[in-house]
Amino acid sequence: MSNSEGYMKALKCRECGHEYPLGATHVCEFDFGPLEVAYDYDRIRKTLNRDVICSRPKNMWRYRELLPIAGEPTVGREVGYTPLIRADRLARRLGIRELWIKNDAVNYPTLSFKDRVVSVALSRSVELGFQTVACASTGNLANSVAANAAAAGLNCFVFIPHDLEQGKVVNSLVYGASVIGIRGHYDEVNRLCAEIAGKYPWAFVNVNMRPYYAEGSKSMGFEIQEQLGWRIPEHTVVCMASGSLLTKIHKSYQEFSKLGIVPQTPWKIHGAQATGCNPITQAQKAGLDFFKPQKPNTIAKSLAIGTPADGFYALRVMKETGGAGDDVTDDEIREGIRLLAECEGIFAETAGGVTVGVAKKLIASGKIAADSSAVLCITGNGLKTLDAVVGHVGQPRDIKPSLREFEALLSRENPELVSA
Amino acid sequence: MPVKIRIPTPLRKLTHDQDVVEVPAGTIGSAIAELQTRFPGIRERLVDEAGQVRRFVNVYVNEEDIRFLQNNDTPLKDGDDVSIIPAIAGG
What we know:
The complex is a heterodimer.
Chain A: E1 8-13, E2 19-20, E3 35-39, H1 41-47, H2 50-54, E4 84-86, H3 88-94, E5 98-103, H4 114-127, E6 132-136, H5 140-152, E7 155-161, H6 166-173, E8 178-182, H7 186-199, E9 203-204, H8 210-215, H9 218-227, E10 235-239, H10 244-258, E11 268-274, H11 279-285, H12 311-321, E12 325-328, H13 330-344, H14 350-364, E13 373-378, H15 386-389, H16 403-413
Parallel strand pairs in A: 5-13, 6-7, 6-9, 7-8, 10-11, 10-13, 11-12
Antiparallel strand pairs in A: 1-2, 1-3, 4-5
Helix pairs in contact in A: 3-13, 4-5, 5-6, 9-10, 10-12, 11-12, 13-14
Chain B: E1 2-6, E2 20-24, H1 28-38, H2 42-46, E3 57-61, E4 64-65, E5 81-86
Parallel strand pairs in B: 1-5
Antiparallel strand pairs in B: 1-2, 3-4, 3-5
């Protein structure tokens, strides 16, 4: 038996099951269904167990048999194993017994969960012989592709909507990538990239490399299970743009339980969107298994995908696991950011505000029971979306370097603290 | 009334590697019918049994998704650009 492709067997259409060789291709020729990596689980079962995982360095590659590269990772070897925080103060505020924060706001090297998918996509791109990598991005992916490509010595093009937050633009430019701003929203960037990918021999991480790329998200779910003490959380709340992360967290629970690495206990996966771009949660709430595309208008730009490619599968995961979906307004997003920051000292980007805001609603409505345990997936860092909160978190009070001025201020604002 | 149709990579085996095809058509529905006449087999790739564009296929007229227009009945005029694009993952 050849091991030249590691533990991967083929690319397989999620709709019709037609199989393809393990190349740079993402769509079934017959029905346009997305292709997914098929693994040799029998071989993986013989190799991978808790002891083997624990013997490896603390990064996402400790689960490497379940990640789609043939050899050793060459890009992003240190990515992942971000903290899982027991969030008791936020739990009390939201009214739930047990709450955990999976904090990918401090993922390495570019402070979002995208480093997971990019390290897989670029390692696989190198295996397939590509010298130029590219992506369509709402910002975080662009940052991660630019940084990881720089470290790996690959040429890099990133395509973004022209009106992204400055932090996300600078965070791509600094690595020397070619940053192309498209005058249009993300769905239009995506459409252009699909056309460019059809013409240029580049590895577009979320176009022709998508089957590999998407699998990287599973590592967030593997880590959650390990860090919880080898168990599957009762409730997981995940924000949704294309819906891919939510489906891959679900898959990580399926794989670990199928392989006997964790006990098979029931789990519910809940999806979170911004009200200004909620094609998936709108369909979920209406009980539909298909969604209607939208034109996004939300401060949560990293979630602003009006035509979510995995929306259909995300709806299915919520339905099958008994999870719910909901969405929050821009003000509720800012409130979610502040709640997480004030209770847990974690500054998340707007997508994190969406996750916290929706968790609050689901707990309040009883869809997540007050006596249960939940994990919130925080996917990106607040320092990248300062524009969204500037002016909403107060202002510093400037005074002269004078003790008298300070005490005058204190007696106005916190008289109980003034020292006699 | 010729319109330009951009053919995505997965369908180019059917169009003998042509990435742009010009067809006369008054609507998206008739454009797909015309493609089928020239390139037998292409219709079933694009639409389901009910004749609707498949879940994972996006069709754009001059960069606007036909689901924001009139789906299969979206009118076409001389010189319109039609793109057929597979759905793409997030970013």
